[in-house]
């Protein structure tokens, strides 16, 4: 045994575990503050629906904040992915407070958005502070960005294993180091237990009945999973379409969420319901017990794509949960499988397709729903991953592996719309 090498490794190991502890504690605490604040503004909006008419002013405030401080921060998660692929400039720390404030404004006034983007961006901005503090090089900065994503995701959803794998999978398994892999799990659990320390409660879901796997059930799983993949494709294309449309038609960025807010407020008033705005968690919970109407998932895609495309802030993942769960729930009317199982499969499968992360989503399904439904969850995430198109919700994500090979072959045959 070479004790000299072990002795030399000790300071490096201690340094990285100290960095993980800092990132995990601060990112977890930031997520705890965010979740508490999000719960408060959501309850206030639910009790005072008139506040939705101020959505345009909230959008204008968000637009000006991002326009006058640093427009590149508006890239959000894409900025983190860009800095991972080509480390250049440190992620501005102002990304953390700006996305926190922007997301709370979005939810307070009635926009349709999620929360993972906020937590991940806060985690990434906090993590990248360590670059200057510890004098880290470009390779080590890549590790920091993975740690920030892992801590943010794990803490906001209460799924440390999925958070760690999501951070590794989204930046491409083939480019990560062994060090990044180990530290990603370590920081995820620190962030997770930090949120537990602050006594923040996460929403619990369950699949009480899981049927035996048969050829008939496998057939129906494949049909449902393909539909989940198409829903993920539609969601991704919707967010990109509205973002491009607003950029092309309204040249002054602060006006985009202002005008978008006017349209959203009027639309919400005329449809006469608020169930498609905000996170939509009550609808997700109900989807596990009551079959949804066939158009619920489509309206959530429309509202979320329009909200984020206009320039409001928040994440895409909880809306993806909504889309998947309500679609799966609606399919229970025609597919002879338990409604909770179909909702749970859709919950993670649409997320898998839209983010190109089938492994992380399968693990998330196991963490949320239990191991009994594991084979159904795994098949759904994998099939949806392959049927969701070549472009996900993150434009800067580099897609490789079997999906990349498949869609390169499809494009050579002229089917470029996928």
CATH topology title of the largest domain: Clc chloride channel
The counted number of beta strands is 0
Question: In whole angstroms, how far apart are the ends?
Answer: 54 Å
Q: Can you give the helix content as a percent range?
A: over 70%
For the record, what CATH class of the largest domain applies? Mainly Alpha
* Biggest sheet descriptor: none
In the CATH hierarchy, what is the architecture of the largest domain at level 2?
Orthogonal Bundle
Q: What number of structural domains do the residues give?
A: 2
How many whole angstroms does the radius of gyration measure? 21 Å
Output the helix-strand order. Answer: HHHHHHHHHHHHHHHHHH
Shape: globular
Structural class: mainly alpha
Please, how many helices?
A: 18
Low-confidence stretches: none
Mean pLDDT: 93
CATH superfamily grouping of the largest domain: Clc chloride channel
Percent range for β-strand residues: under 5%
